[in-house]
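Researcher: Quick test of sequence recovery. Tokens follow.
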């Protein structure tokens, strides 16, 4: 009966003995999970999911790093990796306010803007103060 002890598989491949019903058939080499090859007896190479999925992180917003049977995204500032792709981080929902007092936060793609509320003026990222209509010309 043929067994895996007689079969040498290539790098990142394992020998698979067939089920008892198929015991007179030869065992086969198969690639480990996350690897591929046309001939596993010669060896298997890692599946590059970054290439196969055409940069799942998003063009211009994240860098994809292939891993065995997976990938990881290093996202640009203002984005985060949700396990699949880089997603815009809504800075306005941050528990610590990103805008100054009396200012409104508006999320933008990859960033945010702060503007003073009506009737206020100043640096919206620091503090907006009431406009003094008595001294304004």
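Model:
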């Amino acid at each position: 009966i043929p067994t895996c002890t007689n079969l040498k598989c290539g790098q990142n491949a394992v020998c698979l003995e067939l089920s008892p019903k198929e015991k007179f058939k030869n065992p086969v080499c198969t690639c480990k999970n996350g690897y591929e090859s046309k001939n596993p007896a010669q060896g298997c190479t890692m599946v590059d999911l970054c290439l196969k999925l055409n940069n799942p992180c998003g063009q211009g917003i994240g860098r994809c790093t292939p891993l065995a049977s997976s990938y990881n995204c290093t996202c640009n500032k203002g984005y985060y990796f949700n396990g699949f792709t880089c997603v815009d981080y809504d800075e306005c929902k941050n528990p610590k306010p990103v805008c100054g007092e009396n200012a409104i936060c508006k999320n933008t793609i990859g960033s945010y803007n702060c503007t003073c509320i009506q009737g206020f003026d100043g640096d919206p990222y620091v503090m907006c103060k009431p406009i003094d209509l008595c001294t304004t010309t």
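The longest helix spans residues 49-52.
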